[in-house]
From TrEMBL:
Residues of the active site: 158
Protein name: Arylacetamide deacetylase-like 2
SUPFAM superfamilies (UniProt xref): alpha/beta-Hydrolases
Annotated ranges, domain Alpha/beta hydrolase fold-3: 100-219, 283-342
Superkingdom classification of source: Eukaryota
Pfam family, one: Abhydrolase_3
TM region(s), chain numbering: 7-23, 35-54
Record's keyword terms, sorted: Disulfide bond, Hydrolase, Membrane, Transmembrane, Transmembrane helix
């Protein structure tokens, strides 16, 4: 056997090893899941720069507005919108259901570009989002676009869910903007960064689609370039001394419905092993779950979709419990056979039936509630 074929054989074995994941039994379309997972792993090797994108989805006929957050890779952005004072219309599409929404809801999309990590770390992108939303929520701007100020929704998926959570909380705290948001809608949101060893993080640590390592890497790019932090997070030993009090807000042993706890045993995180200090880890603008109940009480009607095969499942489930405990009306859909990212796969040829189902549920909920 020649060197070339040996090399080829070795590469195949390595690729198979690298891309192999046990696909859960009850999952629909397993071969597509595998392809998507492989795609994601290869993409992880090549695409490292992620940025948050804000879209304002504006339905002319129905005079309501969705503001959509998602994290997408730079290269996929079709058009940037510019100027601080004027929104140009344009269509963003990549890994988000914007195209489908436009079709079903007769919408136009707007957005603007953001200061990017790693040059601009947290909270630069969040501040930009807040700035853009506050600009948009001015009476004169709403009027210009014929928007009914009583029918505005903030929405987003995955890391965009963190933006939705914190933007909604921050606006409710601001007397000028309180009650301007009718509803927040989150699809498998990422809502905290202080406990990465919840049951879903254990069960789905290798994916499908989003592995624990990737989730941690992506969130940390937004905070620091220091390599020590992600390593410490992987060991779940990174929160500073004195932060124990925050764990009551995300304590899964307290907030997770019994069904999802299975045989997992709650393990308190080990504190104080990290030398560097990252105050951002304690910041509720990064982890919207870190606010107390009186802050949650102010929040508007909430829609949350969680997927079973998703490391972020428990973030969403805990937010559902906490919001309901605080008396906030919540519609929660749990999709038993879906993976993280499912709603990004709604266009041929790589569509998932579960993605289409989620999108249908989401759209009909918006149609009824916004
Ligand atoms: C988490 O909740 C469990 C059960 O409610 C409790 O025993 C434990 O002390 C809590 N831990 C923290 C850090 O809040
Ligand atoms: C952290 O501090 C310990 C003890 O002071 C030291 O031994 C270790 O090298 C430090 N680690 C880093 C990454 O600076
Ligand atoms: C909740 O948090 C807010 C902001 O940190 C604080 O002002 C308020 O006193 C807290 N409320 C309770 C009941 O702890």
């Amino acid at each position: 056997m020649g060197n070339k074929s040996r090399l080829f054989g070795l590469s195949c074995i390595l690729l198979a090893y690298y891309t192999y994941i046990p696909i859960p039994e009850n999952i629909e379309e397993p071969w597509k899941m595998r392809l998507i997972d492989i795609f994601m792993k290869i993409a992880t090797l090549t695409v490292v720069l992620l940025l948050p994108v804000l879209k304002v989805v504006h339905s002319r006929s129905k005079k309501k507005v969705y503001i959509w957050f998602t994290f997408i890779s730079v290269k996929c952005v079709n058009s940037y919108l510019n100027g601080d004072d004027d929104f140009n219309t344009g269509l963003f599409y990549c890994g988000s259901p914007s195209e489908k929404l436009t079709g079903k809801l007769h919408c136009i999309f707007m957005g603007r570009d953001y200061r990017l990590a790693p040059q601009y770390l947290f909270p630069a992108a969040l501040e930009d989002c807040i700035f853009a939303i506050k600009f948009f929520l001015q009476d004169k701007v709403l009027e210009k676009y014929g928007v009914d100020p009583a029918r505005i929704c903030i929405s987003g998926d995955s890391s965009g869910g963190a933006l939705v959570g914190s933007v909604t909380q921050l606006l409710q705290d601001d007397p000028e903007y309180r009650n301007k948001i009718k509803t927040q809608a989150m699809i498998y949101p990422k809502l905290q960064i202080i406990d990465t060893w919840m049951p879903s993080y254990r069960e789905y640590k290798d994916g499908p689609f989003l592995s624990r390592k990737l989730a941690i890497k992506v969130s940390i790019r937004y905070i620091t370039e220091d390599e020590e932090l992600p390593e410490a997070i992987l060991r779940n030993e990174y929160m500073p001394e004195g932060s124990r009090d925050l764990f009551k807000f995300v304590n899964w042993s307290h907030f997770l419905p019994e069904k999802y706890k299975k045989n997992h045993v709650y393990r308190e995180p080990i504190l104080g092993t990290l030398n560097a200090s990252y105050p951002v880890l304690l910041d509720s603008r990064l982890s919207p779950l870190l606010v107390n109940d009186s802050q949650l009480q102010k929040l508007p009607l909430t829609y949350i979709i969680t997927c079973e095969h998703d490391i972020l499942r428990d973030d969403g489930l805990i937010y559902v419990t906490r919001l309901r405990n605080a008396g906030v009306p919540v519609t929660h859909e749990h999709i038993e056979d879906a993976i993280h990212g499912a709603i990004s796969f709604v266009t041929a040829p790589m569509y998932l039936h579960s993605g289409l189902r989620i999108l249908d549920k989401y759209i009909s909920w918006l149609q009824e509630n916004l």
